[in-house]
Amino acid sequence: MDLRALLSIPYLLEAEAMETEPGEWLLRLAYPELPGCTAEGVIVEDVLKDLERRRIEMIVELVEAGKQPPVPRPPLATSDPLWTARELGLSGRVSALLVRTAV
Fold first, then answer.
1. What is d(CA 74, CA 8) in angstroms, rounded to the nearest whole number?
2. pTM here?
3. How many domains does the chain have?
């Protein structure tokens, strides 16, 4: 499976909100099928972007190390991981790897 397909795999998302002080909340998001892929913060949109950034970086690092990321279900046919990587401001390395596999 190439990198584009691996980055198009949908993972289960867990969300947890915790009141840290009266009226103050912390949001924790995780992809439990990718061990260690978590993000925390107070603004939902920022936490989700951070989690997606971590997911992509984790999968790329595994592929570069010659390891297979978890594949709990087939890739989404409508996913565009190159757009997502660019939208999240990921390094040129990730975008370059995706472009290389698209050719």
1. 8
2. 0.87
3. 1
